[in-house]
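call fold(seq) -> C-alpha cells
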Amino acid sequence: MGVPIVVMFPILLVLTSREQWYPHFFVFARLWAKIVLYGSGFIPIVKKEENVDANRSYMFVANHTSMADIMLMLYCVKNPFVFVGKKELTKIPIFGFFYKRTCILVDRNSQKSRKEVFDRAQARLNTGVSICIFPEGGVPDDESVVLDEFKDGAFRLAIDHQIPILPLTFLDNKKRFSYTFFSGSPGRMRAYIHQKITTVGLTQDDKKNLNMRVRNIILEKLKSKTL
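ret:
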C-alpha cells in the first residue's frame, strides 16, 4: 500500500491541495488501487448488471469485510467519488495522510461528527462528485456474520439529493484479505455491480424500506456465492 504512494507522493500532494483537483487525484487513486491489488496477488473480476453513467452522481454502497474493499471499489468504479469512512484509518502510515485529505471522516462515537459528515457529503455532491459509503458502518467483529445491518446515512443522503443508489457486492474479500492476522490468500477477488436503484420521488419516509431493499440485494448475491 505504501510504496506506490511514496513514489507518487509529490503528484498526490499537489492534487489534494485543492478540492477542484480531486477528479485528477482520483485517477491516481485508481492506479494505486490496481497496483496494490495485483501486487498482492489478487485478481479482480467484475461483472456488471448496470453500466455506470460517467456524467451523473451516484451513491455507491457495498458490503464491508476487508481493508481491500477500498481498493476494489476504486478498481470497479471510474466515476470520481469520495469515501465516507472511519477516522481510525488516518493512523495507517502514509495511506492515512492522503485518506485524511481526501475522504469524509466520521467519528462513530460523536453525534456532532455524524452531523458534519452529512454537511460535507452534501457539499461534495453539489460539485458533481459521487459518494461511497459502506452502510454496515464498519467490519463486524464476528466474521461469521455474512452481512451486518445497514445504517441509514447513505439512504438519507441519496434521497435528499435524489441520486441513484448503485449497490456492489464483494464476494471474496473476506476470504482473500480479512482483518484476522495470518489469514487469506492470493486469488480471485470478484465484484458484482447491481442495477441502480432510483430515489426520484422518494422521501425520508421511504428510507427504511430503501435500506432493506438494498441490503437484501447484496445479501442474496453473497448467499449465492456466484457471479
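The mean pLDDT is 91.
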